[in-house]
Amino acid sequence: MFNVMMSPCVPMKWHHDADRTELARLAPGALPAAAPGLTTLTPLGEMLAAAHLGTLDIPNVAVSSALRRLLVALFIRISGLDIADPDAWDDRWDELFRQGHLDPAEVAAYNSKWAHRFNLDDPERPFLQDPRLATECGDPAPPAKLVMTRASGNNQPWLDRTPQAAPVTPHEAFWWVLAWRQYGPCGLGANRSHNGVTHKSMAAAPLRSAISWHPESGNEYTNLLLSAPHPTDIPVTGPDLPEWEQIALPDPLRPELPTGPVSRLINRAAHATLTRTDPTTGQITAVWAAWRTPVPSALKDAGAKKALEVASEAVTAAEDPFLINRAKGGPVRANHARALVRDFDSLVHIRRPGDTTSSATTPPAWIRLLDTLPAEALDHLGPIRARALACHQDKQEKEEIWFEQVTPVVVADYTSGRHPEMAARVTSTRQTAEESAKALAAALRSAWNAMSPDPRSECPWTHDTIAVYWDRTGSRFWQAISDGTDPQLRSLAITLYDDATRADAATPAGLIPIAQARAILTHPKTRRSTKKTT
Questions:
Q1: 239 and 262 in contact (C-beta within 8 Å)?
Q2: What confidence tens digit (pLDDT) does each residue in 101-118 have?
Q3: Which member of 44, 187, 196, 371 has the lowest number of beta carbons within 10 Å of its beta carbon?
Q4: Which one-letter DSSP state was computed for residue 240?
Q5: What is the pTM for the complete model shown?
Q6: HSE of 269, CA atoms in CB hemisphere, 13 A
Q7: Taking Cα atoms as reference points, which of 145, 121, 133, 77 lies closest to residue 249?
């Protein structure tokens, strides 16, 4: 059997200066191929014990986001940070901070206790899968159904044109089982029959189309330590156990309400999957993907339907600790055309106790933890940046653009609680960028409307030009917030306006309209003050 705690499955890039003897002792499964500076597949258990010697090096954004959440859940359980009392949590966190790594004996003890639950192809409790699908669903789908980057069924090919029937290696199957739990689409899956409920509809997974923000220190142990949410941010209100530690399989008709960070990170899946392994090759040759909890409309009994609606809404409402959550509209969504610099403002603005200012967003829990650490602790941790992991998706089975970015600036230098003047600079620079983008779009539309015989026609310049604007804004934005200089975004907008309209500006029809609309950028109108002077 493929046991993820003991089989190579986590891509780890080892530090160039990692001690070879310590690496061999803590991650022997990665040797002899492992060496400082190289990336190797490492068992989950060895990766956790040697986390301080390297960083994750995961090729796919969805897998990276989902695997990081699994590792944080394991870190919380193994390290003893599953504490409800804030003071006791602080004391334990300080111990782990001074320790600088997980105790290998604690990792081994946890692995010894729960190793039987980490088998990917266990007939009774396959890791984070539902064995009931084999009897509750019809025939399985080809293995390509599991791999989101492959073409499958009627969806369009994306980055990978591997044939649908090509088998999947066990470690890749493990990656995509995690990704389905966090990023699976809504729509139709296998027709599942459970306890009198039969249907095909699946809800969208909790992270689908959202931007996930993670600490990036260059040291995976530090990343995990910062990622564990403080109980004041995510209270522990009951036994906060991951699925593999629970006695029974989840009840599809009674979704579990989150009781703390572990259940929020691991147990909120919208989909159930089950892989089938070829006993000869050990490769995955088929998969079932179906609903984990039925959509309420599938239930005929009015009382049961209402109860399921209430429970499902409560599960959905539980905020994920790595998202920027909005007061209305859910978490900030991923959009490849929206520059990440526009979300950095929301990321660094923290509400501290006693702060009466209203805020439309709540930053990730680790940002709030970073904002309150003593200066000496920050110096010891080193520079902490933010890693954004996102996929521009719709809710259905359509993968558009996956993207990943690490902020070039140190996050703690800009949090509003620690450096309010720097946070204010972020806000003002972001507002300047937004205003210049708005003026650029308005100028392009004005020129087009004056030229086009159909006032309802869409301006052909706007979309691409605004995308280029935000792409070029990034370096100017980071430089401006670092040294307080003018990002010169209005001049950038003028340059891009001229580039977009240059060909038409040379024609009789476009000469005057384009010149007149250009004044929106070169001579912006100032708003008149409504205040009376005395």
A1: no
A2: 999 999 999 999 999 999
A3: 196
A4: -
A5: 0.92
A6: 26
A7: 133
